[in-house]
Structure formats: C-alpha cells, structure tokens
# Entry
Amino acid sequence: MVFSSKPPILQIDPKAARRLLQPMLPRRLRACLDPTLRIPAACIGLAVEITAIAPEAEVPVQAWSAAIAASGSDLWHDHRWIAPRCALTGFLDAWAVERDQPAARALADIVMLLSCGGDDREAAARLARPLWLECDAISDLSLQLSGLAEAQTRLSLGRASEPDAASDAEMIGATDLATALQTAWSDAFADALLELSGEASAAAAAAAALAAGAHDPFADGVPLVRALVPVGQRMMQPLADHVARRERRKRKIVEASLARSEARHRDKATTGRAEAPDDDLKSELSPDGHVMVVPAVQETGTDRGKGVTRGYEHIIGKPLPLTPVPDLAAVRAALLFEFPYARGTVDRLLADLVGRTHATLRPTLLVGPPGAGKSRLGTRLAHHLGLVLWRVDATRDSGASIGGLDRRWATSEPAHAVMAVARAGCANPLMLVDELEKAATRTDNGRLWNALLPMLEPETARTYQDPAFQVEVDLSHVSWLATCNSVKGLPGPLLDRLRILEMSAPSAVHLEALLAPILAQIAADRGLDPAFLPALDGDAVSLIRRGWRGGSIRRLTRLIEALVTARETLVTRQ
# Structure
C-alpha cells in the first residue's frame, strides 16, 4: 500500500465545533447564542442554581417558579410574571452587594434575559454593558483552539497503537491522518469562533440600541434572549453589505493586476523585450528585510531622460532596507508622555505594528479641531519609530504633483513617496499630508485627492506606475498619515481607503500632564537641557489655568513660553 506524503483534506462540520465552544462562553452570552435553548427548562435549572447559591432566596424563587407554571410558554407576555421577576432580581442584586458575590448579579441578568420581552427597554439597558464586556472575553478563546483541536483529534483516533505493532507504512498513514484531522478541527473551531464572535457583537449592539429607544418590529412579542442576535444582525446588515462591496472591489483590483501581469509575460514571450523583474524575481534578488522599490530605469538618451534619474542612482535597481519595529512599549510610553490626552489614538496607531517585523502603518486620517496636535503627533510618531518623515502641505500642493510629473515635461519629478524613499534610504518612510480637506478642488492639472488613491491601496501601490521613471515602483511599505479638521467635502473613494481616527483637543484636566512635555519641547527648541527650565510652581499653574481652559495646544504652548520668558527676564534683572 502506498501512502502520500501530503495529509488528506478533511472537513469538520462547524456546527459540531460550535457545540463544543458554546459551553466555554461567558454566562449571559451563552444564553443568547444557544439556538437550542428551551426557556422553561432553563428557568427550572436556574431556580435550582439560585437556591443553591443563596438559600435565603427560596421564597422569591418559589414565586417565580409558580409564575412559570401558571404562564405556560409565553412567560414574557403574562403580566403576572413581572412582580415575581422583579422581586427575584431585586433580591439577587442586594445579595450580590451585601455578600460581594458577582455571580448573584449574573444570575439576576439571566433571569431578565429569560423572562423579559424584546421590547423591554429597561432590561436591555441593564444587559448592554455586561454583554459588551463578555464580548471581549470571546477573543481569549482563540488561544485555546489549538489545544481543543489536538484533544478532539486524539478522541477521534482513539488510543494510538504501539510503535512495534504496526508497519512503517501504517505509522506514516496514521501520522498523515492525525495531521489532517487536527488541521480540520482547527479550521472548524476558527470558523465557529468567528461566527460566535459576530453574533455576540450583534447581541451587544442590539441591547445598546434597544436601551437607547430604537424600535425593531421583530423584538415585539419575542423573549429578549431570542431577540438580541436577530435584531443586532438586522441593524448591522448595512455595515456587512459595505464590507462585502469593499472586498469585491479589492478582488477586482487584484484580478486586474493579475491580468496585466499575465499580459506582460505574454508580451515578453512573444517579443523577447526586456522587462522589469517580476515579484518572484524581485524577492529572490532582495535579501531578507529589503525591498526593491525602483527597478532599472530605461533612459531615453536625451538630456531630459538622463536627468530624470540624476540624484536617485542610490535607489534605482538596488534593494533598500526596511526600518524594523522598535520597542513598542517604549514608543507608547514616550508618546503618552507628550500626548496624555490622546491615549486611544496612540494605541490604535501602534496596534498596526504588534507582531510585525517592519514599521508600516495603515493609511490613516486623523480628524480633530485646530490645535489638537494632529500634525505634531505624526511628527513625533515618525521620530520614535525611527522613520524618515516627508511632509506635504495639501493647501499648497496644487494639482496631482504628489503622484509625480511626467518625463515629457521640463518640471518632471518622481512621486513624492519615491522622493521620500530616496531621502530616507529605506523602503518605508512616513508620508504626512497636512490639512487634507483644504486641498485644491480644480481638476485642470489633476487633484491631490485623486493622485493619492492608487498609492493608498496596497495592491496598486505595489505596482505604482511612476510617471517620471516610467516603471512600476513598489510603494506598498510606505506609511501614509493625513490630518484634517473635518471629513466634510472629502470624496468617498478617498475616505474608503483611509482609516479615520478621532483626535480630540485636550481639556483643562490635562493641564498638569501637559506642562512637563511642553517645557521639554520649549527647551529643545532653544537648544537647552530640560533641566535648565525648572518646573512651574503652583502660582504659575494657577495663572496658566486662568488663561487656558482647554482646546488648542498651540495657545497653551504660547502661554507657557511667555511665562518662562517672563520668569527668565525677572531672574536676570534680579
């Protein structure tokens, strides 16, 4: 018998994997996500559990159980159900506080889920926050999937035979089968967990929406435990449709890119014309941690053709290094020291780099009021990550020059991202586009917004046709960070390619935290050691607080700088 070295392809029903994962879910979500839940039986089991944890609850539990028996199957429709339910949940809430037992509070929430209707706004308000918190716990299950897959594989195969009791061929076959079976279980568990995570998010979103007064006809006359997931899915359907449209659009772009690549290979086979190396050859020519950004450029022989490559010889046809990701904990601490009011924004920016070897951020748009420190955050982010920064002022960049100017013109120049790569000497600089919404809207010479589109999409950025070099350059490792005060007026295709992060201006409560970084910035601007600028005392802080009650960082910096200057002048006179 001949055995293949490749394990067979097996599939496990995701429903079986879901049934195994459901008991591991947090208590409230487990009730919402169990399609086989029988409410009367669940109520009886819950009554026994409540009596076991709190024997003093026997009276309200008996009243609740009697209401169950009297109401039949439509427990949430019967008004006789309300008083016993309220008495039981009130007792459990008081018990949880007096005895410091969060489990009693969770049991009260389950009572609400099982015996309240989908249109009960108060019950939804009570359950919204616990459901959100339990949604976060679902992600922790992903760490246990490999162990579960291994355990299910052993159960499926049974006890392994002794090594000397089987031939080599049989052992090889058994190993292949175990590998295939474990892979199948891993895939099934991953699919089931993804499905459960989506339903859990839908349930939590529905609870929050119903608590805020949203109305869905499906929730009328349905128990709350049955209503949350369908109502949430109906609410999130437009978002799911939008994501599906984006995926279809990306797939079309990839297919078009593959079609162009195949056409180039056909032309090369028929004409024998030399072309730039394809992606596989580029990866072979580039050592690990390097990228071929600009392949060999064909010069025309004219002075203009030769001049277009002048100054870029050090990046043309040469693999360039990628700046590695530094210690993210140290970067986060440094940024939070300078921007204590932007913790959420900093964390979401740095989340892109977790687990990565090279520093490349997703195309991001920082939106916030003037003076919130958006541009400075981009500058300091590049500094702490060790990335070279290339700044573009959208208010002054007329036309589409950011994407490069054609070789036919006397003012020909490569794309700004290519110039940034040349300045940095590496393949992943950071492009900062300031005041994006204030870019010129006339289309006589193109628009900055339109020129950005192909450089923000990873697929098209990898094969960007530079108009000056007239070759495909790889800009997929360049980081793009833009700032604006409002997204109003920005075109939809541009917003579709950018991750939008809100950055609020600091408030008065952040004043003390901002004094030290602003003093350090003032000292750096003056070329001084921060130790030469002593900390501000209580009177100085009170004076600044009267002049700044939150808002623009620029105004706060001017106030502190004026106070420091006045203090230095006073010391000099004395």
The mean pLDDT is 80. The chain has three domains: 14-233, 328-502, 508-573.
